[in-house]
Design goal:
Pathway: Amino-acid biosynthesis; L-proline biosynthesis; L-glutamate 5-semialdehyde from L-glutamate: step 1/2. This is Glutamate 5-kinase. The chain is of the alpha/beta class. It has 2 domains: about 260 residues, Carbamate kinase (3-Layer(aba) Sandwich); about 90 residues, PUA domain (Archaeosine Trna-guanine Transglycosylase, Chain: A, domain 4, Roll). The chain has 14 helices and 13 strands. The strands form 2 sheets. The chain has an 8-stranded mixed beta sheet with strand order 3-4-2-1-5-7-8-6, with helices on both faces. α2 runs parallel beside α10, α7 packs parallel to α9 and α8 packs antiparallel against α9.
Length: about 375
C-alpha cells in the first residue's frame, strides 16, 4: 500500500474525527489528515475525501432539547446547518480549492446518475480540486439513504475506479475481539477474505458519535475489495499512521482485493441498486442460473414477492430462500403473478415460447454471494 504508487485514492473520515466531542467541528485531528492529503497532492496522487460529521458539526447551533439525538427532523436540520460548518473546517486546511458533493442512494440506484457521479469527480480531479463527499442527510428518507459513510466511501471508490480506499476510524483496525472490553485483543493485520466469522467479530463496535461501527467498515471493505480495490482501516487519531502509509507500511488492517473482482457493471448492480421485489425459481432453474445458464422460461417461476415494474431491480431466490442472483426486471410483478397464480396460467405459459430473459435482463444480471 505505497501511496506514491497510487494514482487515485478515496479517504473516509468519520464523525469522531471531525467533531470529537460530538458538538461542533475541531481541527484537532483534521490537521494530520489534511497534511497527508496535501502530501498526496504533491506526489500527483489524486484524492477524494468522504467526510462524515455534518450532524455532529451542526448540533452546537441548536438549542438543547431532550429529544435532540432522537428527533429525525431535527437531525436533518442539524445536517443542513452543519454541512457548511464542516466544509469550512476542511477549507481552512487546504491551499487548493475544494468542492462539495452531497449524495443519496438514489444517485447510485440509477446507472445514468451513477455515471454522472464519476464524470463530475473526474472533472474535479483533473482540475486539481478536492472533492468532499457526504451523504445528503438533510433530505434523505429511509428509502433514499445509504445509511453510513463507510459504505458510501466504497461506492464512491468503485465509481471513480480508485486504487485504494482508506477508512480512518477511532481504532487501529479490526481486532479478534473488542479492544475496549478485552485488553488481550489482537489486531488482525491482513485479511484476504471477509468471512461470516469476521463479520461476527466486528459486531457493532464503534464510537457513539457517528452511525457506522466496525461492521459497516467491513461491509465497505467487502464492497471495495470485490471491485479489486485494496482497503485499509486505520486509526485517524494517529499521525504516525499516515507517515507509515506514505512509507508503504500497513498502519492498521489491510483488506486485500479479490482475486476475481467484479466488473464495474456487475459491481454497480450488486451493491449500488436496491431490490424492489423477489422471484422464487425452481431448483432446476436455480442450479442452471448458478452455472451462468440464464436460458430459463416463465414455467420456472415458483413465486413472486413484492411489487415491481419493468426496469426495477429484483432478487432471484431458490425455493430454500437463498439469494442466487440480482437483475433488472423485464416484466412487472403483476404479469408474473398472473402467470404463477391464474388457473389458466399453465396453458398460457405452455403456449408461449418465452425465455426467462424476458423476465430478467440478462445483460444486467449478476450472481450473488451469500
Amino acid at each position: 500500500m505505497r501511496i506514491s504508487n497510487k494514482n487515485r485514492i478515496v479517504i473516509k473520515v468519520g464523525s469522531s474525527l471531525i467533531a470529537p466531542e460530538g458538538n461542533g467541528c475541531s481541527s484537532r485531528y483534521l490537521l494530520s489528515i489534511a497534511n497527508f492529503i496535501v502530501r498526496c497532492h504533491l506526489m500527483d496522487t489524486k484524492v477524494v475525501l468522504v467526510s462524515s460529521g455534518s450532524v455532529a458539526a451542526g448540533r452546537s447551533l441548536f438549542s438543547d432539547t431532550p429529544d435532540k439525538c432522537g428527533n429525525v427532523t431535527l437531525k436533518k436540520a442539524m445536517a443542513a446547518a452543519g454541512q457548511t460548518e464542516m466544509m469550512e473546517a476542511w477549507n481552512k486546511l487546504f491551499d487548493f480549492p475544494t468542492a462539495q458533493l452531497l449524495l443519496t442512494q438514489y444517485d447510485f440506484q440509477q446507472h445514468e446518475r451513477f455515471l454522472s457521479i464519476r464524470e463530475t469527480i473526474e472533472n474535479l480531479l483533473n482540475n486539481d480540486i478536492l472533492p468532499i463527499v457526504n451523504e445528503n442527510d438533510a433530505i434523505t428518507t429511509d428509502l433514499s439513504k445509504v445509511g453510513d459513510n463507510d459504505n458510501l466511501s466504497a461506492m464512491v471508490a468503485s465509481a471513480v475506479a480508485a486504487d485504494a480506499l482508506i477508512i480512518c476510524s477511532d481504532v487501529t483496525g479490526l481486532y479478534d475481539a473488542d479492544p475496549r472490553n478485552n485488553p488481550d485483543a489482537t489486531l488482525i493485520k491482513d485479511v484476504h477474505k471477509i468471512s461470516p466469522e469476521l463479520m461476527q467479530i466486528a459486531g457493532g463496535a464503534g464510537s457513539g458519535v457517528g452511525t457506522g461501527g466496525m461492521r459497516t467498515k467491513l461491509e465497505a471493505a467487502r464492497k471495495a475489495t470485490r471491485r479489486g480495490i485494496p482497503t485499509i482501516i486505520m486509526n485517524g487519531y494517529d499521525e504516525n499512521g499516515f507517515n507509515e502509509l506514505l512509507q508503504g507500511t500497513n498502519p492498521g488492517t489491510m483488506f486485500h482485493p479479490a482475486t476475481s473482482p467484479l466488473d464495474k457493471k456487475q459491481h454497480w448492480l450488486t451493491y449500488g441498486t436496491k431490490a424492489r421485489g423477489e422471484l422464487v425459481v425452481s431448483e432446476e432453474a436455480a442450479a442452471d442460473a448458478e452455472q451462468g445458464n440464464f436460458q430459463l422460461d416463465y414455467r420456472d417461476i415458483v413465486d413472486v414477492n413484492g411489487e415491481f415494474t419493468a426496469g426495477d431491480t429484483i432478487i432471484v431466490k431458490n425455493e430454500q430462500g437463498e439469494r442466487i442472483a440480482k437483475a433488472k426486471a423485464e416484466s412487472g410483478s403483476c404479469l408474473l403473478q398472473f402467470l404463477v397464480n391464474t388457473d389458466n396460467s399453465a396453458e398460457f405459459r405452455g403456449n408461449q415460447n418465452n425465455e426467462f430473459g424476458q423476465v430478467l435482463n440478462r445483460k444486467e444480471m449478476t450472481l450473488l454471494e451469500e
